[in-house]
Design goal:
With 150 residues, the chain is an alpha+beta fold. The protein has a single domain, classed as Ribosomal Protein S5, domain 2 (2-Layer Sandwich), CATH 3.30.230. The protein is built from five helices and four strands; from the N terminus they run ααβββαβαα. Strands 1-2-4-3 form a four-stranded mixed β-sheet, sandwiched between helices. The chain is globular.
């Protein structure tokens, strides 16, 4: 029984191969990847160039977010959400998640909701069923018409 528990825990582990670790990988993803704005994060995603893992995550939390304790808390929460929800993300994708300042007030549930939304949006883009931008287009058009009229 103990062996089964250990096996289950080992399969859920976030291994080195599951993380973006090199500076050049971060820079490549940030330079050539697609940006996705979320409530608590700015995410960048790009097709995986490494043959190692199916999907990898990189986490960036700057000093603007807070002191070391707060930054480490955010990173722990993001790692845990990724670990439990990584199958919701597309295969062969590298994702870099950059925390925004407002993430300090977020709890596990809000971060999980944000990252699940990211997974849905990335999956939708790959399948060609992205719904991003719907609704905003009408809003922007209406504002443009108001400026022309007024």
């Amino acid at each position: 029984m103990l062996d089964r528990k250990m096996e289950a825990m080992a399969s859920e582990r976030l291994r080195k191969e599951d993380r973006v670790r090199r500076r050049r990988d971060y820079l490549r993803i940030q330079r050539y990847g697609e940006k996705i704005h979320l409530r608590y994060f700015l995410a960048m995603s790009r097709m995986t160039e490494s043959g190692g893992s199916d999907r990898r995550i990189g986490i960036t939390v700057s000093k603007k977010v807070g002191c070391a304790v707060e930054r480490n808390r955010v990173k722990r929460l993001v790692r845990e959400v990724w670990r439990k929800n990584r199958t919701r993300f597309p295969v062969k994708r590298d994702v870099v998640v950059i925390a925004k300042r407002c993430v300090r007030e977020a709890g596990y549930a809000e971060i999980e909701r944000d990252l699940q939304q990211l997974g849905r949006r990335l999956t939708g883009r790959i399948e060609g069923t992205s719904k991003e931008g719907r609704g905003r287009g009408k809003e922007v058009e209406a504002r443009g018409r108001e400026r022309e009229d007024g």
